[in-house]
Specification:
Blueprint (H helix, E strand, L loop, with lengths): L11 H25 L11 E5 L9 H5 L4 E5 L15 H6 L3 E7 L3 H9 L4 H18 L7 E5 L8 H15 L4 E7 L3 E5 L5 E4 L1 H12 L5 E5 L28 E5 L31 E5 L9
Parallel strand pairs: 1-2, 2-3, 3-4, 4-5, 5-8, 8-9
Antiparallel strand pairs: 1-10, 6-7, 9-10
Length: 304
């Protein structure tokens, strides 16, 4: 604000009135500024609820699920432990029902990587080959360029060298395509030995991968963090608004999976009452077990 000097000489009363008007104007401006500014500690970011499941819920269940969830997981290949993938061909119908996506590709377990290595395939090349499958599947399903494809890393803790080579081979190959790489991995701290002063150390899979990406100057990887321990996880509840992903302890995550089916009893004792018969069920869809996630976006993979 530019204050102008009063040029004409004023009497005492006139000067007092002028000062009073100035201060009233200044006070009014301060009140207006305070009313427009966000409250300290508040955030304008909105958080959204989503679900994922190995089995497709069925076309008839989509309206009921959409009343609760903004986005859904979407498998590009067979989910863990499954011999089929019922999600294939369902993208258009899910878009029609208003869903956003977390697009998933089921990665390899360490035993599979080691077996492939014994047959002569380097872990990095194995990851690159699987990335090509993921990219091809995403294109067939109609996911647009720029969508984030998440590699499902089921095994937690610090990565073995062959695991890291496979995983980073996959993410770098996806980054070289028209899609962007993401990682679904554990944000659960696990024991990582002791430091030189005998203090216990912990690490998460996500921390390990982020450190390796930074050290090698690789492409950024979007993170979908798994952390179902209560707390910080609220258990099998659909909250409005959804819990912020940063509460998981993994800062900057695109999404946070905070409840799983079946539940992991060693981590969910404090919120066990929110689960039913060891599973988490979608509200309004009885008998359909789900995992629950939150995100700052209604379409975390940008898959619409």
């Amino acid at each position: 604000m530019e204050w102008k000097r009063i040029q004409a000489p004023l009497g005492t009363r006139a000067l007092s009135r002028a000062r009073s008007r100035i201060w009233r104007t200044f006070a009014a401006l301060l009140l207006l500024t305070a009313s427009l500014a966000p409250a300290q500690g508040s955030s304008s970011a909105r958080n959204y609820s989503g679900f994922d499941a190995n089995e497709y819920p069925g076309d008839a269940s989509l309206p009921a699920l959409r009343r609760q969830f903004a986005f859904t997981g979407y498998w590009l290949n067979n989910p863990p432990g499954a011999s089929h993938n019922a999600w294939i061909g369902k993208r258009a119908l899910l878009v029609k029902n208003g869903f956003g996506f977390l697009v998933l590709f089921n990665g390899r377990l360490n035993k599979d990587i080691l077996a492939s290595q014994k047959r002569g395939t380097r872990p990095e090349a194995f990851g690159q080959a699987d990335a090509a499958l993921a990219v091809a599947a995403a294109r067939r399903e109609g996911f647009p360029p720029g969508a984030i494809l998440f590699l499902d890393q089921e095994e937690g803790g610090r990565m073995f060298p062959e695991q890291a080579a496979y995983l980073l081979g996959w993410t770098e190959a996806v980054a070289a395509s028209s899609y962007r790489p993401g990682l679904y991995a554990s944000g659960q701290p696990v024991d990582d030995g002791k430091d030189d002063r005998g203090r216990h150390l912990t690490i998460t899979t996500i921390q390990d991968i982020r450190q390796q990406v930074a050290a090698r100057h690789l492409h950024p990887i979007a993170i979908w963090a798994i952390q179902d321990a209560c707390p910080p996880a609220p258990g099998c509840v659909v909250q409005s608004p959804a819990p912020a992903p940063d509460i998981s302890g993994t800062l900057g995550a695109v999404a946070w999976q905070y409840a799983q089916s079946p539940r992991r009893t060693e981590f969910t004792r404090a919120c066990g009452a929110t689960y039913r018969d060891g599973n988490c069920y979608a509200p309004g869809v009885p008998g359909f077990p789900v995992d629950l996630s939150s995100s700052t976006s209604p379409d975390p993979s940008h898959g619409r």
